[in-house]
Design the sequence.
């Protein structure tokens, strides 16, 4: 193998490994009780309570994965846009805060919502909404308006949705967590189903974004079809779980969510390969990371699939959730 | 680096340069000169390179010769305009007429891959009506080709080159989606778009033969704008990196630094091979068929230089039309200055286009059409333009160059009408090979002038509408040469038939831009390649029917053939 090719592979492995590390870090942080300190759970813990806290932690992990993806993605993309508008720093700050909050939540065993976490998640959701507005405005004002050229190369319309989803999932996680003594509900709706529906819709939205950008890349690599075919199936399964009756085990859906989790991680590896396909490969990383496919973007699928798993877990523990 | 491609041949001893790997080689089949090959092809550009590939893939034995070097773009090309003038055909030629052509970088190439090695990659289909311009539009000459058939060959070439183009093309009949998506617009292209929107006409991203996504071993475009000086990333889908590697893999032999001086004719009246100059000596390659694909000047020159007692006016010239009806395309520009930075040199030079005046017949006082595109001149070219077209020198040139990053320009590719008086003939002087050099005579007709006038006025309005100031026009520039061996359906009024086969000598073919009866207002290379693909299909069909002076090709697979390549 030629040295550049070796270097490419090493870089690819490194990126994939860091993705795995991130997710395992988030999951390790949710290691069961036993540790002492203020975050220890109360002694007498009922199984329902354990389940809601566990689900909440899983949701924190999902929200954190999405926030991590946004942090990395918007750092690169907005750096590329030279932070022309000062508002372009906002998603970096907010997603960093959301990531920290999620790590905090993932480690927290207490069955109470946390005001600061709640506030951060709401801020994240608001940032996502406003960001989408900004991106839409950016695309629309370019010559040609809402044309293919501008949706390909203007601000990515779907990108801010990831931080919105992160905020939503985080907000849901707090509602689930505080529902330890009652049935977990979100805005009066059964929590498990609501979260499944949110994750399902999020998967569809993210598929749209991947579809658009992979269309821009002309699906030149057949693997580019995976993120536009597997996630919609996952979304359909989640939505059907949300709409279906209680007592179902959702084994297949859970399996599919694991596939999507892995697909998101593998996507980072594929994007790293994509970076290497540009002139100069990874030797010219400082330019090609900006030119190539966005490395962290596929993690959104992982984040949403983790949320789906959490929702299904909750529905198993609380059949009426 | 692997040696000087100008002084030592690179394609020999059973191997040719691997254009995708620095220092790499690919195995190449070699043919003996004494045994006739099915096809000897003179020139490996848009016409010759494409045909060599297709014929080899159909199983014919092919030797393609090019006077120019075999470049390795990844190593041989520099981001330096002066260095890259090595790509042009700058051998001696004489120009005259009322509007003598400026020959050189803008209209010729001398390399394996031909002019496509430094062309601007604009890949347009002809307007269907142009193929019958005499009958339908009242000017020029009809082509013997049907546009619907051409539409299929256009698709083949677009797929082969992975053309990056808009999702839907605003003009003409429906066409399949371009295989790759359009590139992002640069500042110059946005200015074109703004002008078109203000004037209420359509614009679109230019379909370009450079990659917007990776392809095989080729990288996507890096938008640093050296396209017409030679792309060193292989993003440009020139014949050198597309058709030629395929041709070699299918068993064709490419001979670089091989200048063909004469096509040999037997007493029977058939051609029997080519005399060519390589490694300091004249050699002879026997062939059952000869294809001349040397571009609109060198093709007629070779045919005229090959005159014999039997064909004293040159080969394929019973109509007297070889060398006549030379057509350049008008290439005038309008320049202006924008307040904000444009940096038009970023990316391929012509990222946005309007073909409005190719498809709109109302509001014209001339026959034919023109498209116009955004421009991105590199600094040296721009300084030359300011000097030659605007007369700036010294202090004023330095001052003007300070505005380089703010300059915007629109440039037409305009249809010039065929005229017999515009022609390539032989001068008495000889070149370094001892061959008589071409004399190129060119004058614009009134229609040409009216078209140019219309375009300059319209583009000036478009630049004003895009908020440019300090607008000025560059009114004398041409590009793309065609004609000189036109195709037709009548032996008395054309040189070749629809299959690019000469009327006079059944095993002599011409397959390049020379065969165009009219040029249209669109860049020609896609059409040249489409015609080459069609010619290959026709040749295969003729061979199967026994109407060809060639062995009926064996249907071997590419894999089989490449093992043969290894063995031979
Ligand atoms: C700067 C520039 C920009 C251009 N931009 C565009 C564009 O954007 N879009 C477009 O469609 N077209 C463009 N063109 C035109 C396009 O490149 C040509 O129309 C096309 O390449 C012509 O194809 P051809 O096969 O006729 O000749 P070429 O591609 O020029 O090939 C002819 C080859 O024959 C060889 N040759 C000639 N005589 C002999 C001989 N006696 N023996 C051996 N070899 C010989 C030459 O060395 C040359 O390599 C551009 C051209 C130039 C120069
Ligand atoms: S802009 Fe693109 S096509 Fe032009 S030279 Fe650079 S990489 Fe090649």
Sequence:
């Amino acid at each position: 193998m030629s040295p550049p090719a070796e270097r490419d592979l090493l870089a690819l492995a490194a990126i994939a490994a860091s993705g795995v590390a991130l997710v395992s870090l988030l999951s390790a942080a949710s290691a069961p009780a036993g540790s002492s300190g203020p975050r220890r759970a109360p002694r007498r813990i009922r199984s329902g309570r354990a389940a809601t806290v566990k689900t909440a932690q899983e949701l924190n992990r999902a929200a954190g994965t999405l926030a991590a993806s946004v942090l990395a993605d918007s750092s690169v993309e907005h750096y590329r846009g030279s932070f022309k508008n000062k508002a372009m720093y906002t998603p970096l700050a907010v997603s960093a805060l959301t990531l920290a909050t999620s790590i905090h939540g993932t480690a927290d065993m207490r069955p109470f919502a946390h005001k600061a976490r709640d506030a951060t998640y709401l801020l994240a959701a608001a940032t996502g909404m406003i960001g989408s507005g900004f991106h839409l405005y950016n695309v629309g004002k370019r010559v040609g308006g809402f044309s293919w050229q501008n949706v390909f190369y203007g601000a990515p319309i779907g990108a801010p949705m990831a931080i919105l989803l992160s905020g939503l999932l985080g907000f849901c996680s707090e509602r689930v967590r505080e529902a330890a003594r009652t049935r977990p509900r979100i805005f009066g709706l059964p929590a498990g189903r609501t979260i499944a529906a949110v994750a399902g819709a999020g998967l569809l939205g993210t598929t749209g974004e991947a579809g658009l950008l992979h269309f821009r890349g002309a699906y030149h690599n057949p693997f580019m079809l995976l993120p536009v075919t597997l996630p919609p199936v996952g979304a359909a399964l989640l939505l059907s779980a949300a709409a279906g009756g209680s007592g179902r085990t959702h084994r297949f859906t859970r399996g599919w969510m694991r596939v999507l989790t892995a697909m998101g991680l593998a996507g980072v590896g594929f994007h790293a390969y994509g970076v290497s396909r540009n002139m100069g490969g990874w030797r010219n990383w400082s330019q090609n990371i900006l030119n190539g496919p966005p490395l962290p973007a596929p993690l959104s699928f992982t984040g949403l699939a983790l949320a789906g798993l959490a929702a299904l877990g909750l529905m198993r523990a609380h059949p009426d959730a | 680096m692997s040696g000087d491609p100008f002084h030592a041949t690179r394609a020999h001893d059973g191997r040719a340069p691997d254009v995708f790997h620095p220092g790499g080689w690919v195995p190449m089949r070699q043919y003996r000169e004494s045994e006739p090959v099915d096809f000897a092809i003179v020139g490996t550009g848009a016409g010759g390179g494409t045909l060599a590939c297709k014929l080899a893939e159909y199983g014919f034995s092919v030797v393609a010769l090019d006077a120019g070097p075999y470049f390795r773009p990844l190593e041989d090309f520099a981001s330096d305009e002066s260095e890259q003038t090595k790509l042009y055909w700058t051998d001696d030629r004489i120009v005259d007429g009322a509007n003598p052509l400026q020959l050189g970088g803008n209209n010729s190439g001398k390399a394996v891959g031909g002019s496509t090695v430094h062309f601007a990659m604009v890949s347009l289909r002809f307007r269907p009506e142009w193929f019958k311009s005499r009958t339908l539009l009242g000017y020029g000459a009809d082509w013997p080709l049907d546009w619907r058939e051409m539409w299929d060959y256009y698709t083949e070439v677009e797929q082969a080159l992975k053309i990056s183009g808009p999702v839907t093309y605003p003009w003409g009949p429906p066409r399949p989606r371009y295989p790759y998506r359009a590139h992002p617009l640069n500042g110059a292209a946005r200015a074109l778009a703004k002008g078109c929107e203000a004037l209420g006409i359509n614009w679109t991203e230019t379909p370009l033969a450079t990659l917007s996504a990776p392809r095989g071993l080729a990288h996507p475009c890096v938008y640093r704008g050296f396209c017409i000086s030679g792309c060193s990333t292989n993003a440009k889908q020139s014949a050198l990196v597309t058709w030629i590697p395929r041709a070699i893999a299918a068993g064709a032999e490419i001979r670089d630094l091989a200048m063909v001086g004469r096509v040999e004719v037997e007493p029977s009246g058939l051609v029997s091979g080519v005399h060519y100059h390589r490694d300091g000596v004249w050699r002879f390659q026997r062939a059952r068929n000869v294809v001349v694909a040397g571009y609109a000047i060198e093709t007629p020159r070779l045919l005229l230089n090959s005159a014999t007692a039997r064909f004293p006016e040159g080969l394929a010239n019973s109509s007297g039309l070889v060398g006549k009806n030379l057509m350049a395309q008008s290439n005038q520009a309008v320049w202006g200055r924008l307040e904000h930075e444009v940096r038009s040199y970023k990316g391929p030079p012509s990222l946005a286009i309007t073909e409005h005046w190719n498809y709109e017949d109302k509001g014209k006082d001339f026959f034919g059409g023109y498209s116009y595109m955004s421009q991105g001149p590199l600094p040296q070219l721009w300084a030359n333009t300011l000097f030659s077209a605007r007369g700036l020198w010294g202090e004023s040139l330095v001052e003007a160059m300070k505005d380089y990053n703010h300059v915007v320009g629109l440039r037409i590719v305009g249809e010039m009408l065929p005229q017999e008086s515009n022609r390539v003939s032989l001068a008495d002087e000889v070149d370094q090979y001892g061959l008589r050099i071409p004399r190129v005579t060119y004058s614009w007709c009134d229609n040409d002038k009216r078209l140019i006038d219309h375009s300059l006025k319209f583009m000036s309005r478009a630049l004003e509408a895009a908020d440019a100031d300090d607008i000025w026009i560059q009114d004398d520039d041409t590009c793309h040469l065609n004609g000189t061996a036109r195709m037709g359906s009548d032996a008395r009024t054309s040189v070749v038939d629809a299959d690019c086969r000469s009327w006079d000598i059944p095993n002599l073919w011409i397959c390049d831009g020379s065969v165009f009866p009219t040029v249209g207002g669109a860049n020609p290379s896609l059409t040249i390649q489409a015609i080459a693909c069609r010619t290959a299909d026709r040749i295969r069909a003729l061979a199967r029917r026994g109407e060809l002076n060639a062995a009926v090709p064996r249907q071997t697979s590419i894999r089989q053939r490449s093992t043969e390549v290894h063995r031979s």
Remarks:
- DSSP finds 13 helices and 22 strands in chain B.
